[in-house]
Amino acid sequence: MADLKKGSIGEEALTYAYLLLYIALSSGQIFFNKWVLSSKQINFPYPLGLTLLHMVFSSVVCFILTKVLKIMKVEEGMTAEIYATSVVPIGAMFAMTLWLGNTAYLYISVAFAQMLKAIMPVAVFLLGAMAGLEVMSCRMLFIMFVISFGVLVASYGEINVNWIGVVYQMGGVVGEALRLIFMEILVKRKGLKLNPISVMYYVSPFSALCLFIPWIFLEKPKMDEASWSFQPVVLALNSLCTFALNLSVFLVISHTSALTIRVAGVVKDWVVVLLSALLFADTKLTVINIFGYGIAIAGVAAYNNYKLKKEASRASPDEARQDQASTTATLIPQKTDL
């Protein structure tokens, strides 16, 4: 009994450690990206180039881990038809999400960007309903209204609103919502379950290609003309943190559940909003900001709770555990955050 109790305590401590690691990496990556793009010391205001670097780094590391060192396995079942109809649009939307989300940091504060991201469930629900994946109901419409109202109140309370940044951030939200829709189609309709390494292995190269083409025309000429100091150590560390964030998501999902990762995500959002007010001079939180964001987060929590109860009612315990692998694939991204 004593050994069992000791083992249970140790497992619980390990779970909390994974949760803290996820929250720390996710929050830290957002601040790291903002610093790299905005710092006068680094002088690297190239969000497209930074995102391209992340995708190339992930592609190389995944190839080394799976094909060279063979430490991790890529699930079988990927066909040319699935790649063309699912991985290609997922990769394109992932590239769009990261590019536009990172660009928004050049115009708006981290806190305000995080508040705007709270509208994500609304975009996912509306696009999902259009794709036949969601069903309209009075309860869901009310939850969508609460989230939208909260984001509007938070935006109204923003002192320095830069609408260019808002457009970039909302474009990133739409891209992420489309990515999640395509991911759900890939997992549920085509029956392909992928762990994070597999997702990055397939998606990252195409995302890099999608970013490389506009980078040649939009940022490469500016980088050739500008006097900027390339800092390989800083940029490599930034890319490594992005990759580590995706792995931390897998660790949390493996040891807990989808509900836990979503709750941890809400905690992370508040950590980012509050810490950004202390770390960055361009962040000035108002009472209206915090009040509106609180309303939006309450709506997000209600949405997550509703979705998880609905999923649990349709799946047996064994199926639910098996679905965690597919849930991992759906959750990956947030995290290169953007």
From TrEMBL:
Residue numbers spanned by region Disordered: 314-338
Membrane spanning stretches: 12-32, 44-66, 78-99, 105-128, 140-157, 163-187, 199-218, 230-252, 259-281, 287-306
Bilayer topology annotation: Multi-pass membrane protein
Polar residues compositional bias, start-end: 323-338
Protein name: Triose-phosphate transporter domain
Domain of life assignment: Eukaryota
Organism of this sequence: Macleaya cordata
Record domain Sugar phosphate transporter: where: 18-304
Keywords: Membrane, Transmembrane, Transmembrane helix
Main localization (coarse): membrane
Any one of the GO CC terms: membrane
